[in-house]
Amino acid sequence: MSEFDPDAFEHDYRGTDPDEIQRSINNRLVYTIGKDPYTAVDHDWLNALSYVVRDRLIERWMETHRSYYRSGTKRIYYLSLEFLVGRSLNNALLNIGFRDSCEEALKRLGLDLEEILGMEHDAALGNGGLGRLAACILDSIATLDLPGTGYGIRYEYGMFRQALEENQQVELPESWLKAGNPWEFPRPEVVYKIHFGGRVMEYQDKKGRRHHDWIDAEEVLAMAYDTPIPGYHTETVNNLRLWSARASHDFDLACFNRGNYLKAVEEKAYSENLSKVLYPDDRASANQELRLRQQYFFVSASLQDILRRFLQQYESLRQIPEHITIQLNDTHPSIAIPELMRILLDKYKLEWQQAWKITQKTFNYTNHTLLPEALESWPVELMERLLPRHMQIIFEINRRFLLTVTHLYPNDMELLKRLSIIDEEGARRVRMANLAVIGSRRVNGVSQLHTDLLRQQTFADFHRLDPERIVNITNGITPRRWLNEANHNLSGLLRNVIGHDWVKDLSQLERLRAYANDSEFQQRFMLAKRANKARLADLTMLHLGSTIDPYTLFDVQVKRIHEYKRQLLNVLRVITLYNRICDGIAPDLVPRTILLGGKAAPGYLMAKLIIRLINDVAAVINNDPKSAPQLKMLFIPNYDVSTACDIIPAADLSQQISTAGMEASGTGNMKLALNGALTMGTLDGANIEIREQVGEENFFCFGLTADEIARKRQNGYDPRLHHEQDAELKRALDMIDQGYFSPTNPNRYKAILRSLIDDGDHFMVLADYRAYIQSDERANALYRDKAAWARAAILNTAAMGSFSCDRTVNDYARLVWGAVPIPHRKSRRIGRKSNHRGE
Ligand code: 26Q
């Protein structure tokens, strides 16, 4: 084929002239979608516009990868079972500075950009914090011009859609791909074989060395889909590569010939189930074989892809750690450690020590949880059946590791038991966290407290062996999505006052401090807040048919429903406020709108019961004329990235009330504070660092500390004392117990009462109740002083600089990855002469 001539292209897809954009949109509508403007429905315009924007990313994307290749830079690979990206169009428009021209072009076509943006489906390939963190990290990696690629699974069904039926959560499947996904590029030529099952064969080579072969395994194919990840105001466009499962042969001809057509089709469907659905976060009760298959499926495909790219450019496998760093997002992809070992040993015939040295220098592991019951483990029996060679390698990693420990600490059997990858109690299990720590160069926690607790508790023995390994990297959020995109009113105001540099350098927000006492600025700041509240009120009217009053205090708790996050504590507070109003003893209470939102894992019955209670309580309160003027409570169904973007900018008060020591970091806490909400929070996760930054007087801190919680547990905590001794608490609990909120079934909430009173109140809800009520009173008092509240809200936004995910990613680059930015110049050429495949 003759050399590709870039000059043969008529234009370079970079123009911002609205006329030209209008032409492009029309072209895409006709030639890609196959509709004309008369027959096009709204969604067709969305797709046409998305293709136009995507076209403008492609050159940058290709040039980015060429420049990575040329520079021979170290690559970052971020392996995650979840990427909770949300919508892409607005993000891409703003990143490439294309929004205004598109808005104008659409106007000329008689279309409204906002309306079109609102039609895009969320890419909800994640559950919550962990998945959203992965998406924020990709955004920052690209914005900082770092050479990073995300690897994950292209689930056909992402996070389920939550609906309410009779106040209860029901789950509906969400097929986000139905209307087409203009952001992805299928790569049918990038396909890898993935194996499961079979057995291990041992053999000797001519020199008498022992080797292993994994044989007789079943085979599934992994096919790549690429999604461009543009940075903000940079030429860099990185890649998110997601794998989709394909049967290895459409028809097993043998079966087919024997006339067993249905069996052949059945097997095909079975293989393709692998990438069908995202597992809901049910941390305590995992253990599904399909989940382990998903993990290995995407890990194996990703490693094959990473090594192929490496070997295209470098000769010696020993150079891997110099050119590649792989970040494991929790233990979910940690099977990558024995997989890389297997490839190095069995395929490339490296010696164990050499292979281990490479592996151990390549991986890093981020831990996201302290709850011991949430640490992932798999039955040895399952692992042996599904991944027999990996199981052998894990045993060998463990044997060698424990041997070194024995040399350091002879005769400490208990220590060996705790450090072992294999949990020998009962049916043997593989502890993935131990495997991940042993196989990684760096292990990180996601907030200072979390990291301290990892060092002192969860991984204390490992920490003693190697005090350098565990580092802290506090989470962050991207200011692009969570302020610039989500909050037009505030970002517009900021632009007028401190310019626009904060979008890429969030520490600039500090300049707002100078305005905190300026009453005109205070008014403008709170006017922006009011406008956001009014917008949210319009949306709740439109979508839920509920009225909420933007002149009330918006009090928000949005996050997954989990007992440790203590939505129940919030409900007890609301009932208490309600009782005070009814008793006429709350004359100073500022009118409140209490918003709660979040999904429960379908199998987590207690969480589902909590959702029902929230809705039952809301029904009573909202329909009681005594409380209605002062108190309204609304459960927002189907909380996802897009609704987060509507709710968070409208919040006055952010509820971050987990049991101290249980929330690894939290990131919603950061999003809310960044948007000028004050936090009511426990000293947990990143709350502690947020409070340090914003100042004690601008943060409503309450409750037991992590140390106090631990001590209380040791000394025997009895929730019944609180129940008996606190009359207001008793009243609230008794109302739930006696069916005040469930008159048709007074027994409905017995399980909640049992858990709080009879079964020891594991999350210490009752222990923190009084302190919580008192902190609510402080918040109430402050809100009555408009200027004081405005000042505190401004100081919250001003102090959030260090919670930018850009800071987080810089920390990873420095402390963990050893990677450097590769900025590249604008290239007007489609193709440069180069013989590499361009990726
Ligand atoms: C496990 C087994 C089987 C199926 C699913 C899972 C599973 C899925 C998702 C287990 C855990 C998760 C997600 C965990 C998570 O979101 N953790 C949160 O991570 C955030 C980012 O670091 C932190 O801010 C939160 O504190 C932490 O809870």
From TrEMBL:
Chaperone among keywords: no
GO molecular function: glycogen phosphorylase activity; pyridoxal phosphate binding
CDD domains registered for this protein in UniProt: GT35_Glycogen_Phosphorylase
InterPro entries from the UniProt entry: Glycg_phsphrylas, Glyco_trans_35, Pyridoxal_P_attach_site
Keywords: Carbohydrate metabolism, Glycogen metabolism, Glycosyltransferase, Pyridoxal phosphate, Transferase
GO biological process, one term: glycogen catabolic process
Family to which this protein belongs: Belongs to the glycogen phosphorylase family.
PANTHER family documented for this protein: GLYCOGEN PHOSPHORYLASE, GLYCOGEN PHOSPHORYLASE, LIVER FORM
Function: Phosphorylase is an important allosteric enzyme in carbohydrate metabolism. Enzymes from different sources differ in their regulatory mechanisms and in their natural substrates. However, all known phosphorylases share catalytic and structural properties.
Full protein name: Alpha-1,4 glucan phosphorylase
Natural source organism: Candidatus Sedimenticola endophacoides
